[in-house]
Amino acid sequence: MIYLANTAHCQFLGLMVGFLAWILIMTTNGMNEWRLWYVTDKSVITSGVAWVGIWRVCFYSHTLPKFENCQWISISDTFVPAEISVAQVLMLLAVICGLAGNISAALAMRIVYFSVEDRRNIRLAFVLAGTLYVFTAVLCLVPLGWNMSSVLNNSTIDFPPEFYLPEAPASQQVGTAIGVGMLASIMMLICGLVFLCYQYVWQTLSSEAPRDTRDLLNGTWTETTLSQKSELPNGNQGIDNPGFQNEEVS
């Protein structure tokens, strides 16, 4: 199959979408707006809302020395609920797995677009890229769904006193980070399915059509040789033209 690159346009688009989804996953990992906590006591949290992420908690205050106050959350903290601890681990794994998926997809595209003869690893490259994309989506969906469920159930967190946050908020709301993460997970899942459904990787490579040896301008290439003396018509044995013979000098 000479024009194999013409069959992988969707996969090339999937690589671009997968790279964008990976950036969104890193963005989700660093955002604080996983949960929005609304409080009634605005003596310290003057904005009335705190942003609870998986790595830190932030709020605005006019009474504290800093206008924006943030406290870091560690996986070793005893007050951290299970869904936040799991999110810290799985989101980091999702970033690493997504990077590996993009590298595998780029190698698969390189084989398709630039490799003419050696295509023995094309099946491995596409299957590996699709599997890593799907696995990355699953790694993101688990913590995102778990934290969303905790918000909808208005779950409480027993923060230490230095966080200046009550144990239970007046109300909670799903933050922007969960929405961005859900979008990135869906994009990753679609990219994985696109790579896994590439038809060429499920065909036998030995069944490829032989290389076309036709000259596109003059038709099929043929071997042309000079005719031998015995093949000349009318028994002509190649007699010299008398006009070109030199006159005998006496």
TrEMBL record:
PANTHER family: CLAUDIN. InterPro entries: Claudin (IPR006187), PMP22/EMP/MP20/Claudin (IPR004031). Keywords: Cell junction, Cell membrane, Membrane, Tight junction, Transmembrane, Transmembrane helix. GO terms for molecular function: structural molecule activity. Coiled coil: none annotated. It is a multi-pass membrane protein. Belongs to the claudin family. GO terms for cellular component: bicellular tight junction; plasma membrane. Residues 227-250 are annotated as: Disordered. The chain crosses the membrane at residues 12-31, 89-112, 124-146, 174-201. It comes from Scomber scombrus (Atlantic mackerel). The keyword Cell membrane applies. This is Claudin-34. It is found in: Cell junction, Tight junction; Cell membrane. The lineage of its organism: Eukaryota, Metazoa, Chordata, Craniata, Vertebrata.
